[in-house]
Task: inverse folding
């Protein structure tokens, strides 16, 4: 008998439900309390109640959980040393949007061989997020697949929507129901209006189709996310972290009665895709904060144990430890240096004001 449906589907596999994976890797009451505290801190910084800056720091993408955990331990130590100035969130990105083809991230392809063992990827991601949280370090993720948040939502302290999905109505609806503050990046062209519109949409109650914790297809009605905010990441039109661009973005935000909060991505279009220039962007961001640009609430850095990037090889055991397989990153040594220098600038800001 000929079927008129799923004619291009090779096969299907049952997937572990969010409820089942939560039982295997549960959140303790202590961790729940800790995450609630992290989320409140993010909220307080975005609203201006806390004068520190959010620092989202970590690998472009995570492909090796042990290297990521070693990085987390190093970052936790640094975080403690600069906590009077920065609230450090580890960038824990497991999904990678692709314009055409390429590795889609640890959740979709944990073995990095196009076997797409998604269940293994979900288990690996959740267990790693728990380990990092147990260290006392908050985590932030990019939300790409609209179903995946059900598996990790309660662990996140901050989230982002990428430049390629900011215009997606699905992601705007999803963001309106996320349990954490969510940053929308400007489009890859550098246009900010799409992100402003996304924030407006996420602010409002909405509905979308997803899966419940027990794996059933469900309709989710949201309350709206008033902590949606803008991330400036530059674009093909050039960087947008300079004073004029920040002031114009802040003007648009205020005119739309949105949360007056901007996070600057020091990588991507702002660094012209040269990871070594992230330090220049960060210095400029710090100077703008010193000179009174109160809309700036934080920044993002792509950082790993070691600098640079590498291609994925057929034998993944040949990969260099602690080196990115997606965008190039600065080393942890460089990360420590520029964050400590930035802290000193902010602590001694009166020397820089003129």
Result:
């Amino acid at each position: 008998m000929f079927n008129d449906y799923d004619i291009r589907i090779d096969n299907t596999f049952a997937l572990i439900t969010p409820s089942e994976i939560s039982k295997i890797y549960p959140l303790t009451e202590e961790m729940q309390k800790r995450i609630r505290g992290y989320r409140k801190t993010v909220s307080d910084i975005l609203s201006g109640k806390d004068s520190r800056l959010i620092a989202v720091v970590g690998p472009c993408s995570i492909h090796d959980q042990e290297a990521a955990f070693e990085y987390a331990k190093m970052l936790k130590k640094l975080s403690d040393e600069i906590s009077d100035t920065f609230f450090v969130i580890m960038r824990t990105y497991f999904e990678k949007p692709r314009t055409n083809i390429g590795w889609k991230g640890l959740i979709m392809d944990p073995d990095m061989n196009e076997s797409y063992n998604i269940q293994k990827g979900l288990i690996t991601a959740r267990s790693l997020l728990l380990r990092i949280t147990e260290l006392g370090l908050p985590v932030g993720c990019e939300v790409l697949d609209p179903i995946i948040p059900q598996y990790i939502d309660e662990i996140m302290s901050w989230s982002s929507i990428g430049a390629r999905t900011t215009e997606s109505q699905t992601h705007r609806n999803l963001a309106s129901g996320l349990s954490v503050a969510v940053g929308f990046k400007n489009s890859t062209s550098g246009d900010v209006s799409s992100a402003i519109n996304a924030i407006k949409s996420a602010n409002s109650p909405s509905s979308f189709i997803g899966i419940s914790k027990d794996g059933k297809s469900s309709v989710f009605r949201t309350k709206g996310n008033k902590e949606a905010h803008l991330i400036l990441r530059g674009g093909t039109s050039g960087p947008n972290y300079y004073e004029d661009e920040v002031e114009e973005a802040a003007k648009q935000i205020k005119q739309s009665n949105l949360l007056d909060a901007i996070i600057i991505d020091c990588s991507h279009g702002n660094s012209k895709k040269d990871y070594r220039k992230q330090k220049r962007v960060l210095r400029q961001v710090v100077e703008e904060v010193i000179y009174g640009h109160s809309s700036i609430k934080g920044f993002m850095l792509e950082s790993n144990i070691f600098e640079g990037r590498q291609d994925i090889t057929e034998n993944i055991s040949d990969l260099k430890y602690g080196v990115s397989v997606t965008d190039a990153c600065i080393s942890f040594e460089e990360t420590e240096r520029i964050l400590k220098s930035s802290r000193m600038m902010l602590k001694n800001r009166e020397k820089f004001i003129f």
Remarks:
- Residues 29-47 form the longest helix (19 residues).
- The CA atoms of residues 57 and 301 lie 5 Å apart.
- Strands lie at 53-58, 86-91, 139-142, 158-161, 182-185, 207-211, 217-221, 228-232, 262-265, 296-302.
- The chain has a mean pLDDT of 95.
